[in-house]
Amino acid sequence: MTTRFRFVSALAFLFALGVLHTSPAMAQTKPAAAVAEKFGISEARSAVMALPEVKVWEEQRRAEAAKAEGGQPPGGILTSQRPVKGVKHWAVTLYNNPQVEAKKWAVFLVRAKDGKIFVEADSGKVITLEDWRKTRPAV
Fold it and tell me: Which residues is 24 bridged to in the sheet?
């Protein structure tokens, strides 16, 4: 046997035993990609629509639409992908009266890897849902 053949055979044996691994950068690339797709756009929208504040907002919009002539839809919802500090998020933007003025009510940012919800403040700064709730009237 040649020295090169023994070396390659030894490496193959160590890989098979799990003693040697790929580089940490390669090892982290595959799971990170899989985790990033764990929480999709429909799950993000459902999570936002399940928030108590959003349910109250939606009920108020429906009541206003029922009173108004023409029965226009109560509000608009726009969902898109938006990176925040290099991390994939789903932005769920809620609008009041989209047919008249399209006034933004709130922008919720749902982290794609785990579903954690953040809110874009009026200043444009991203804050936690808990901090946003402190600035809102109780539901």
Answer: none
What span, in angstroms and rounded, lies between the C-alpha atoms of 64 and 57?
Answer: 11
Distance between the two ends of the chain, CA-based, in angstroms? 78
Per-residue pLDDT reduced to its tens digit, 30-78: 444 444 457 899 999 999 999 999 999 888 888 877 777 666 666 678 8
Sort 110 into a burial class: Cβ within 10 Å, 0-12 / 13-18 / 19+.
buried
> Do residues 44 and 79 make contact, with C-beta atoms less than 8 angstroms apart?
yes
88 close to 36: Cβ distance less than 8 angstroms:
yes
Domain spans of the chain?
1-36, 39-134
CB 33 within 8 A of CB 88: no
Amino acid at 23: S
Render pLDDT for 72-129 as a digit per residue (tens, 0 to 9). Answer: 666 678 889 999 999 999 999 998 876 667 788 899 999 999 999 999 988 889 999 9
The contacts of residue 96 (CB under 8 Å, 6+ apart) are 61, 75, 102, 103, 104, 105
